[in-house]
Design brief:
Number of helices: 18
Radius of gyration: 27 Å
Shape: globular
Strand order of the largest sheet: 17-18-19-22-16-23-24-25-29-28-27-26
Strand content: 25-35%
Largest sheet: 12 strands, mixed
Oligomer: single chain
Number of strands: 32
Distance between the termini: 27 Å
Length: about 700
């Protein structure tokens, strides 16, 4: 099966500019977060881990390119270069543009001089800088709203894409170079395969002789590299005006910088969108709109309150006991009393959790807006979440260790939030489905937040809260700002994807080994759908060890943008299980992501249902997030009860019915890459059982 690259890797190692990195992370999330996972990577990751197969693009931010070279010369650069030549994409801003060139010439004849060859050499020639005088590593004195001339014909985009944008656009600049392409130097024929996308206006001067003005200097170029592409930029189109403080710009050439960038912000965003589209990267159309709020540019979504309510639990006393324990644990007084709300805080390991009871009066918000903003808005303005870097110590990056501020709102059936506070998930409907789909433990309590960092991290890292939550609590979110996958992978969180973490306390039992729990959940996800009458043929499958795949078959009226019409397997869900052990009991956190209603980045359950209806002449109804979370938790409990009694072996036929690996041929790395055939799954360890193709029977 061919893997689709869905990770956008951002270099985060020695040499990065702290603001350049933080602003880049924010902007990439705004433009690409609907489809791609934005993942910081350090040199060790690039050196040791198999990142290439899942990467869509590698982005290198502004900073200093000499530390880049020191950290990545040799093996890392070789891997990057080979990956791009096989079809990868490299995007370098400022220092990342110098670094992607064959030769760097920075501030020649000055104390800041840096001159030397570079290994990546996507552009064979020289990147010469600075394009403008006055650069200072320690201040913004050299920054300016540079006038850039967009070569629209080079992008080959429909004229409608640009709307009525001017061809000359103001873009943030600070220290970047320009590219000495054959075309710019007047060489004919040009053989450096560099395509100029953007030029500087006529106010650039030659760093070798500042009295000499330069006209038409290439500011952004695109270079073919085998089957891949590298785009190198001396400008910073990833910088939005609202990232910047006007008080930092006091020089005659930049005192109006923020105002100029603000007036050209829509043009900047469309230019950046065009650069990404040129690289065949899918851009969120919402990032390219004109009607930006007059007070601020497009921002990263803000975190919202987490609502907690008894769902399947029965008994008023049990619910009241949990509510009381949580309120009692929030023993510290906060500083955000508002609208009659007394701010009480549980100081946990990762978060300061503000715990309140929902306002129960009809027609009112369950959380007063002023209180919500006072608690949650400051943390939402952090441009790069926990990847916000605050300083350097030698070559080591120092991370922000301040706690997140989160909010837990305790609700009853009579005080659930309405559509104004949870517009993308109906908690009342979810509880209705949960009670129709019978279960006792799984889904006993329901937590929901419209936007959070990660449902898994919130429950895993806040150990005091975790100990207080009832067994079977399910934490659902519509949008995760930092969703987690296996290893260093991130989970992409577009709207329409069901994302939840379920807490389960599992006793030590020989017949029910904890290692098999991930397989149990994967079967539950697939069977939750396929066990519904009429849905037996929906093509969901299991990929070892813990992924859910779908056989996607484009049909005549499908909106699939892929050129292929052949059936293909696409990942549609994944499972991440975290565990801890204490006093003979495992505490398990099942982190699940299931594409229910989102057609991107791969396909979804509802798209499969649509395709199935067309090809089979049926009229099966699509599924809602509320319905699927009820079905999955109920099916999990059904299978879990059998597992506790008899182990996983009686469930193997159900697992095999859905998995992809029957008779699959594999290579055994620990056996000299001997070829073997998959024959099954060990019901106690979860490892694949194989039979040698060279020595049958072994």
């Amino acid at each position: 099966m061919q893997m689709v690259g869905l990770n956008v890797l951002v270099y985060c190692g020695p040499g990065i500019g702290l603001n350049a990195y933080a602003y880049l992370i924010r902007t990439l999330r705004q433009f690409l977060g609907h489809r791609y996972a934005i993942i910081p990577v350090d040199p060790e990751t690039l050196r040791k881990e198999p990142w290439e197969s899942k990467a869509a693009m590698l982005v290198v931010p502004g900073g200093r390119d000499m530390p880049y070279a020191a950290a990545m010369n040799g093996e890392i650069n070789k891997r990057i270069k080979e990956w791009v030549h096989r079809g990868g994409r490299y995007l370098g801003f400022c220092a990342g543009g110098y670094y992607g060139s064959g030769h760097c010439e920075f501030q020649p004849g000055t104390p800041l001089e840096v001159i030397g060859d570079r290994e990546l050499a996507f552009f064979k020639g020289t990147c010469l800088g600075c394009a403008y005088p006055g650069y200072d590593y320690k201040s913004e004195d050299g920054a300016r709203a540079a006038e850039a001339v967009v070569e629209r014909d080079a992008f080959k985009l429909p004229a409608a894409f640009w709307k009525r944008d001017p061809t000359n656009v103001r873009i943030y600049y600070n220290g970047g170079g320009y590219f000495l392409t054959d075309e710019f130097l007047g060489k004919h024929p040009a053989n450096d395969n560099a395509l100029v996308l953007v030029r500087y206006a006529s106010d650039v001067s030659d760093p070798r002789n500042r009295t000499k003005l330069v006209t038409g200097a290439p500011a952004v170029i695109s270079c073919k590299a085998g089957r891949g592409v590298a785009v190198l930029s001396g400008l910073h189109p990833e910088y939005a005006w609202d990232f910047l403080a006007p008080s930092c710009y006091t020089q005659s050439h930049n005192k109006h910088l923020v105002a100029l960038l603000r007036s050209h912000d829509a043009y900047r965003r469309r230019l950046l969108g065009a650069m990404l589209a040129h690289m065949k990267i899918d851009v969120d159309k919402d990032a390219l709109v004109d009607n930006v709020s007059p007070d601020r540019s497009i921002r990263v979504p803000t975190r919202t309150p987490t609502f907690l309510v008894p769902a399947r639990v029965s008994g008023v006393a049990a619910a009241a006991t949990t509510m009381y324990a949580l309120k009692n644990a929030a023993s510290a007084r906060g500083q955000n009393d508002a609208d009659g709300v007394i701010d009480t805080v549980l100081h946990d390991a990762a978060d300061d959790i503000h715990i309140i009871s929902a306002i129960s009066e009809n027609g009112q918000r369950r959380v007063p807006r002023a209180y919500q903003d006072a608690v949650l808005l400051p943390s939402a303005l952090d441009p790069a979440s926990k990847h916000n870097l605050v300083g350097l110590e030698g070559a080591e990056l120092v991370q922000d260790t301040t706690k997140d501020q989160s909010m837990l709102v305790l609700c009853t059936q009579d005080s659930l939030p309405g559509s104004s506070e949870t517009p993308r998930f109906d908690m009342s409907l979810a509880i209705q489905y949960m009670r129709e789909e019978k279960a006792h433990t799984a889904g006993a309590w329901l937590m929901y937040s419209d936007t959070t960092n990660s449902t898994q991290t919130f429950m895993e890292k806040n150990t005091r809260l975790q100990a207080l939550l009832p067994n079977g609590t399910v934490n659902v979110a519509t949008v995760q700002l930092a969703g987690r996958g296996r290893g260093r992978n991130a989970w992409i969180s577009p709207v329409g994807c069901l994302q939840f973490t379920m807490l389960l306390r599992h006793p030590t039992m020989k017949q029910a080994p904890v290692v098999m729990m991930q397989y149990l959940m994967s079967v539950a996800i697939v069977e939750a759908v396929k066990a519904q009458p009429g849905y037996e043929g929906i093509p969901l499958r299991l990929k070892w060890p813990n992924d859910v795949y779908a056989l996607h078959t484009p049909v005549g009226d499908s909106s699939d943008s892929s050129e292929s019409t052949d059936p293909s397997y696409s990942k549609i869900g994944g499972i991440l299980v975290g565990s801890s052990f204490k006093a003979g009991e495992f505490t398990l956190l099942f982190g699940c992501g299931i594409n229910v209603a989102n057609p991107l980045p791969t396909t979804s359950i509802n798209k499969l249902i649509h395709e199935y209806n067309i090809s089979h002449g049926t009229s099966l109804a699509e599924m809602s997030l509320e319905k699927v979370v009820a079905l999955v938790t109920a099916k999990f409990e059904e299978l879990y009860r059998k597992f506790l009694v008899s182990g996983f072996e009686p469930l193997l036929p159900l697992y095999y019915k859905n998995w992809l690996h029957t008779d699959q041929h594999v290579s055994l790395a620990n056996q000299g890459f001997e070829r073997a055939k998959v024959i099954g799954l060990c019901p106690t360890s979860g490892l694949l059982r194989v039979s040698s193709l060279i020595n049958p029977g072994t």
